[in-house]
């Protein structure tokens, strides 16, 4: 019988390490729990990113440098540069862009009139004045852009639109779609930027 008792003890000793292994497996499960806590942080980050997208939509027409939602021109083989189709396409593009910028200016003016409150707290007043200052700077930039659009429309009517003011070569349909108020070809614009960097 002594032999049987020894084997039972050996069996229980063997079972004990198995329990330790189970305990070790439980420890990584506890490590997985903090990973679940990290998941809500990701959701919070995603919520913070959403307002940034809204502000990007507000600035889309001015910051992208072109009208939103226009259809790019499909060039045909052997087509003459700045033909009637090109002129009509760029006239529409410039008018849409100008209209979008004018709507943004109107929206800003209404927003500033509606939000013009006399806050008793100096910090609130300072915050409001800072917001208005940023809005006015943006609108001033857009006002200058509207002036450039008007100049581009005048050049379009005169037949000078789409040609480099410096060297006279074609600016190109794709470049004009990317920046409809461009007056210089890529080479002349690059030289102009290099000169500007050297000056200051």
UniProtKB/TrEMBL annotation:
Q: DnaK suppressor protein DksA N-terminal domain spans which residues?
A: 87-155
For binding Zn(2+), which residues are annotated in this chain's numbering? Answer: 164, 167, 185, 188
Q: Name one Pfam family in it.
A: zf-dskA_traR
User: Compositional bias (Basic residues) spans?
Assistant: 1-23, 38-59
Indicate, by first and last residue, each region the UniProt record lists as having compositional bias (Low complexity): 24-37
Taxonomic superkingdom: Bacteria
Write down any Gene Ontology CC term.
nucleosome
| Key words, A-Z | Coiled coil, Cytoplasm, Metal-binding, Zinc, Zinc-finger
- The principal localisation class reads cytoplasm
Q: Name one GO molecular function term.
A: zinc ion binding
The segment(s) forming the Zinc finger DksA/TraR C4-type domain are 159-190
> Which residues does the annotated region (Disordered) include?
1-69
Compartments, record wording: Cytoplasm
So what family is this one in? Belongs to the DksA family.
What's this chain's function? Transcription factor that acts by binding directly to the RNA polymerase (RNAP). Required for negative regulation of rRNA expression and positive regulation of several amino acid biosynthesis promoters. Also required for regulation of fis expression.
Q: Give the quaternary structure.
A: Interacts directly with the RNA polymerase.
Q: What is this protein called?
A: RNA polymerase-binding transcription factor DksA
Q: What is the lineage of its organism?
A: Bacteria, Pseudomonadati, Pseudomonadota, Gammaproteobacteria, sulfur-oxidizing symbionts
């Amino acid at each position: 019988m002594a032999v049987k008792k020894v084997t039972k003890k050996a069996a229980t000793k063997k079972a004990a390490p198995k329990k330790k292994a189970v305990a070790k497996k439980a420890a990584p499960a506890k490590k997985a729990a903090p990973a679940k806590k990290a998941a809500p942080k990701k959701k919070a980050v995603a919520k913070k990113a959403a307002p940034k997208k809204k502000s990007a939509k507000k600035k889309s027409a001015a910051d992208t440098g072109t009208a939103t939602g226009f259809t790019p021109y499909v060039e045909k083989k052997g087509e003459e540069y700045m033909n009637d189709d090109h002129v009509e396409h760029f006239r529409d593009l410039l008018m849409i862009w100008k209209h979008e910028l004018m709507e943004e200016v109107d929206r800003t003016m209404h927003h500033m009139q509606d939000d013009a409150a006399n806050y008793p707290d100096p910090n609130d007043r300072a915050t409001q004045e800072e917001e208005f200052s940023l809005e006015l700077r943006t609108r001033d930039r857009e006002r200058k852009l509207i002036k450039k659009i008007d100049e581009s429309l005048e050049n379009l009517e005169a037949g000078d639109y789409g040609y480099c003011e410096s060297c006279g070569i074609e600016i190109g349909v794709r470049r004009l779609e990317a920046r409809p108020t461009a007056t210089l070809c890529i080479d002349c614009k690059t030289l102009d930027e290099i000169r500007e960097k050297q000056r200051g």
